[in-house]
Write a structure and sequence with these properties.
Structural class: alpha/beta
Order of helices and strands: EHEHEHEHEHEEEHHHHHHHEEEEH
Shape: globular
Number of strands: 12
Strand order of the largest sheet: 1-8-5-4-2-3
Helix content: 40-55%
Oligomer: single chain
Bound molecules: nicotinamide-adenine-dinucleotide
Number of helices: 13
CATH superfamily of the largest domain: Dehydroquinate synthase-like - alpha domain
């Protein structure tokens, strides 16, 4: 006889977390920590480059209220690894971190993802506050709870959904960031505006120089809107079952370009070229008109993301690399399709649709002028 016992857990209680955004708002970190609940110890975890610039002052300030320690690891994508996760854990054990230890992830997306994942698994989960220091991590990776490490089998394929207890975005950090990294992040804002908000596509187009020059008001406005949209998407679909896939606009091609260049191209730039191709696919499918496509091409050209970049690749190689995309099913390549500026094709919150390989090839060849 087969016995069946059902485990009935109460539905996970809804919870929310604050995102503080401003110029110089790092001074509010202590107060934010106070709102998190009981804290036995604080661990600031950062990469070596960011730590050099910002960690000392933070350790000094927080030490006045909590036992505070700093852990660092070398910067760069290749360090978002299982090895570094294990090294951080080792140090956490030596420091006798317990379940009331609070991690502060101070850095870009690499730090946020690695620290987030470490916090997700240490003693089955401890709290983390994300303090993003790149534009990409402010606009994108610090919000939404995706955490991960890379393995030799692929990027971000071991990880967990682990929401932070708070996020603090101080645009002052961006002053030390090279312009290339500003553009790298800005593409993720352009991506979300192209799929959700036409007015902000216009705002970006008209203010691009001021944004890149880190002019406070416009920068805060852009980050605020992009993060609000991302927060909305995450609220609707935390685990990326449907609507959250819309954040992948430009990414099916973008990931393929990262793969075939062996990650020589920065993620945001790859997504930018991906947006050009995926918007062209939408045009070829009759979902947007030529003028709409031109709006996108003109906007990206302002940040030197131009279709000529694609000429160096064999179009077929891009398509082959797209076959490995995580959105695919039944051996079909799926793409997020805009059907206007600021809107995407959405059928019952399903937003990724199969596109024939010859259509993708046609779009790439068209952009290459072939
Ligand atoms: N979790 C998510 O939802 C999500 C979303 C998008 C991207 N990501 C991940 O984010 C990562 C990329 O993030 P990134 O672009 O921030 O890269 P990054 O963290 O590697 O930072 C880029 C470089 O800038 C340096 N840096 C960071 N802040 C600085 C500052 N204020 N001044 C000077 N230098 C600074 C870093 O040391 C690094 O060398 C990737 O691993 C990607 O997979 C995650």
């Amino acid at each position: 006889m087969l016995n069946q016992i059902n485990v009935r857990l109460p539905a996970q209680s809804a919870y929310s977390y604050p995102i503080v955004l401003g110029n110089g708002c790092i001074t509010q970190l202590n107060e934010l920590i106070g709102r998190v609940g009981k804290v036995s110890k604080i661990l600031i975890i950062s990469d070596e480059e960011v730590a050099k610039l910002y960690a000392d002052k933070l350790v000094q300030d927080l030490s006045l209220s909590y036992p505070t320690h700093l852990i660092t690891f070398p910067s760069g994508e290749k360090n978002k690894s299982a090895e570094n996760k294990a090294k951080i854990e080792e140090q956490m054990f030596k420091l006798q971190c317990d379940r009331h230890t609070l991690c502060i992830a101070l850095g870009g997306g690499v730090v946020g993802d690695l620290v987030g994942f470490t916090a997700a698994t240490y003693m089955r989960g401890i709290r983390v506050i994300q303090v993003p220091t790149t534009l990409l991590s402010m606009l994108d990776s610090s919000v939404g709870g995706k955490t991960a490490i890379n393995t030799s089998y692929g990027k971000n394929i071991i990880g967990a959904f682990w929401q932070p207890s708070a996020v603090l975005m101080d645009i002052n950090f961006l002053q030390s960031l090279p312009q290339e990294q500003i553009i790298n992040g800005l593409v993720e804002a352009i991506k979300i505006f192209l799929t959700f908000d036409k007015a902000y596509v216009e705002k970006c187009t008209n203010n691009i120089e001021n944004i890149i020059a880190l002019e406070h008001d416009v920068l805060i406005d852009i980050i605020n809107r992009a993060v609000s949209l991302k927060a909305y998407v995450v609220e609707v679909d935390e685990k990326e079952q449907n609507l959250r896939m819309g954040l992948n606009f430009g990414h099916t091609v973008g990931h393929a370009l990262e793969k075939i260049t062996n990650f020589a191209v920065l993620h945001g730039y790859a997504v930018g070229y991906g947006i050009l191709v995926e918007a062209k696919i939408a045009e070829l499918l009759g979902l947007i008109n030529q003028e709409d496509y031109q709006v996108i091409e003109n906007l990206l050209a302002k940040i030197n993301i131009v279709k000529d970049y694609l000429k160096q690749f064999n179009s077929q190689d891009i398509v082959v690399a797209m076959r490995g995309d995580k959105k695919n099913s039944n051996q079909e390549i799926k793409v997020v399709l805009i059907n206007g500026i600021g809107t995407m094709k959405n059928i019952g919150n399903q937003v990724a649709f199969p596109v024939a390989e010859n259509m993708i090839l046609q779009a790439i060849d068209c952009l290459k002028g072939e």
